[in-house]
Amino acid sequence: MEFLKMQGLGNDFVVVDAYRQELPEDLGSLAQKVCHRQFGIGADGLVLVLPSEKAAVKMRIFNADGSEPEMCGNGIRCLAKYVYESGLCPRTEFTVETLAGVLRPELMLEKGRITGVKVDMGEPRLSPDRIPVLFAGDKVVGQPLEVQGEKYVVTAVSMGNPHCLIFVDDVSQTPVKSLGPLIEVHPLFPAKINVEFVEIVNKKEVKMRVWERGAGETLACGTGACATVVACALNGKTDREITVHLLGGDLILEWAPNNHVFMTGPAEAVFEGRYFI
């Protein structure tokens, strides 16, 4: 299997062209093998580029544990760069079919070189049944959540995949690796959940760490950053256009007047190779 290893702010992926090569039927097991950092290539996820009947290309992504999430913000930026540079789609703006709907990345070029990718990530889902979360009311904004006897204040947002956001005073001192997995599998989150811990710097900047469903703590999460700008605005913490500082670098987010969330950030190729299935 030929692949390209890519990363977006340290959130890394094995990207595979499924147009031109056949893959095993059990893609979850394949993802577990190739993403293993000792016995495989090593990555947070396996990204497949496939033909689509409703968009220019189709994206499927599998986490390192073999589960298939609806979407991945850093993954779609990597896919967009790959699709353009491999010649699968020669346009700088095109559509991508995902389990979260059809999204539209736009490549930012300077002198023929891709300097970043801006993605229209669509509209946030705020109603509990669409996230899904088992809270009462029409939105989950500043709601209490009890975890092993401790109470937290949470906001829930879906960007095609579910997110639970908690505002903290100092994100560097937050026990992400111990608290994240407890919240991920909390009974109020029937499809499990991604957990973002957010420190407000000012009205235009925040720091964020993330515990990703199926992957653990990662250096960055694109959909988590999208959910962050929405949650910050809903709670009156920031403006609707902010810079999110993640462990792997920065993303620029805008919750636009048309209710769409736009994400801008980098995508880089690391190396290419052949994996023996």
Report on the architecture of this protein.
The chain is globular and about 50 Å long. It is about 15% helix and about 40% strand. About 45% of the residues are buried. It is α+β, with helices and mostly antiparallel strands and about 280 residues long. It has two domains: about 1-120 and about 265-275, Diaminopimelate Epimerase, Chain A, domain 1, CATH 3.10.310.10; about 130-260, Diaminopimelate Epimerase, Chain A, domain 1 (Roll), CATH 3.10.310.10. Catalyzes the stereoinversion of LL-2,6-diaminopimelate (L,L-DAP) to meso-diaminopimelate (meso-DAP), a precursor of L-lysine and an essential component of the bacterial peptidoglycan.
Offer a quick outline of the entry:
The chain has 277 residues and is α+β, with helices and mostly antiparallel strands.
Topology:
Blueprint: E1 2-8, E2 11-17, H1 27-35, E3 45-50, E4 57-63, H2 73-85, E5 96-98, E6 101-110, E7 113-120, E8 143-147, E9 150-158, E10 162-167, H3 176-184, E11 194-202, E12 205-212, E13 216-218, H4 222-234, E14 241-246, E15 249-255, E16 261-265, E17 268-274
Parallel strand pairs: 2-3, 4-5, 10-11, 12-14
Antiparallel strand pairs: 1-2, 1-17, 3-4, 5-6, 6-7, 7-16, 8-9, 9-10, 11-12, 12-13, 14-15, 15-16
Instruction: For the record, give the distance between the C-alpha atoms at the N and C termini, rounded to a whole number.
Output: 7 Å
User: pLDDT average, as an integer?
Assistant: 97
Shape: globular
Helix content: 10-25%
CATH topology name of the largest domain: Diaminopimelate Epimerase, Chain A, domain 1
Number of separate domains: 2
